[in-house]
Amino acid sequence: MEESQLLNPTNIGNWKLRNRIVMAPMTRSFADDHTGVVRRDVVEYYRRRAADGIGLIITEGINPSPRAKGTFGIPGLYTKDQITAWRKVTDAVHKEGGTIVAQLWHVGRLTHPKLTGGYPPQAPSSIRAEGLVHRLRKPYEMPEEMTESAIQRVIKEYAQAARNAMDAGFDGVEIHGAHGYLIDQFNSEVTNIRKDRYGGNLAQRLTFMKEVLTAVVKEIGAEKTIIRFSEIKDDLPNYQWGEPEETIKTFIRSFQDIGICIVHPSTNHFTEILVNGMTLHELVRKYWKGVIIGVGNLNVDLASNAIREGMIDLAAFGRPLLANPDFVERVKQGRAIASYDPKRDLCSLL
């Protein structure tokens, strides 16, 4: 039987990845809710996946500031105690030969003052999100439209968090610019109706994202910076890009302007057609020559074929890695991948 393309090693910048399997970022809420410090069991959670041989681990979303928090138990990277705790995680992963990057995540308007220390949600425009805050189960509150000084402050917080990630021993960072969170709120015409340089047409609305990426790249380098972006919005299930191909071209030009090397286009369904018979990842590959991380309910065969065809370079898996801490070994041996069972999810920590 032909060996899966997932098992081929690859070098990306200074990262020497043992294979092309990526642990997708998954909200786990395992940090102390008051301090944002990850606990010792989180060390074992990531160490075990590294010991299995996963090529690249992307952490759960990590807040660059207290106002970025969108639910209970989210870790941070803005205090010394948080940095020290994450250092234990990265040390454990590196001892197992793994590579790990920190996903930096600001939820913007999708939060509540009870989670942000009493501060109102931040957003590009004062437009209230519909629905209930995750786990808190309270309606979203009206967000505070960010002034330009507030925008610059948040950009500095991203840059500082990226620097802190390096101090904590991470190999890089992923900027979460997808799923309707703060960066994506600036990107979208639904949530951004500003009249200044951060609003306007799509290219202008991407200004905030570009400034965040530019600040992060200045701190840690383009080769260590991943950007995640998407059409899908967690709070707007029916949202669609009006002109998908032109939208992707505009995003790609922005990434090329900054000089980053790795993109992570996010979708719930990898094979879903976006436009003109092409999927999201096929459209991105049409215009992007750099590294693409594929994601979206992938299975081993689908991911392996996509890598073989050159559509993607790395394949990210989420729930299969929770259900199978020995995922890589199962792929090597051609064994069945166990299905994820949410009733057993607490056991997946170990």
Automatic annotation (TrEMBL):
Q: What residues does the NADH:flavin oxidoreductase/NADH oxidase N-terminal domain cover?
A: 6-336
List, alphabetically, the Gene3D superfamilies matched.
Aldolase class I
Record-given protein name: Alkene reductase
Task: Please give the superkingdom of this protein's source.
Answer: Bacteria
An annotated Gene Ontology molecular function:
FMN binding
